[in-house]
Amino acid sequence: MADGPAGGPCPPAPDRRPALENHRRELRGVLGSFATGITVLTAGRELPRGMTANSFTSVSLDPPLVLVCVLRTAALHDLVLDEKAFAVSVLSAGQEPVARRFADRGRPRGAREFEAVDTEPGRRTGAPILSGALAWLECGLEAVYDGGDHSILLGAVLDAGRGPGGDALLFYGGAFHRLAPSVA
């Protein structure tokens, strides 16, 4: 238990779930006020799967750790748990069609899922890494945490690299945006 302002125990946080459930749309708007980068999370050597994810962040440089949140019902979820590995491709501004493809629940599955996207298998995990990405990471699954309807996947970085550069693709206010170049 954490210490409170006077050194004593902190009181328990009030249960705010009922209030938030009644305001799901408002909460979505509030959370959409935070701009995020866009990634495609991939896993699988034999029959790979992918999904667009903007809930990705670095956790630690020493040891190198990242996390990503995945909906428990996503097709990729159980594959990551089985493979105990995944790759993350950080998308460039020109890769909005790729982001949309892997966010589309109606996209082709199986061997056809990656047919319209250039990839190469990661050296450490075999998971597809998207060509043209700003950066990429291959991760071993370090831990899985409960995150409500999502799992919080903690990945130990096994390999990483950068692509050709360029502007980033962002998600803000429920839409894709391109990061404007800075004016010096």
UniProtKB/TrEMBL annotation:
Citing just one GO molecular function, the answer is: oxidoreductase activity
Transmembrane annotation, as ranges: none
Which SUPFAM superfamilies has this protein been placed in? Answer: FMN-binding split barrel
Enzyme Commission no: 1.-.-.-
| Pfam families named among the record's database cross-references | Flavin_Reduct
Which InterPro entries does the record cross-reference, listed alphabetically?
Flavin_Rdtase-like_dom, NADH-dep_flavin_reductase, Split_barrel_FMN-bd
EC category: oxidoreductase
- Annotated protein name in UniProt: Flavin reductase family protein
Task: Give the source species.
Answer: Streptomyces ficellus
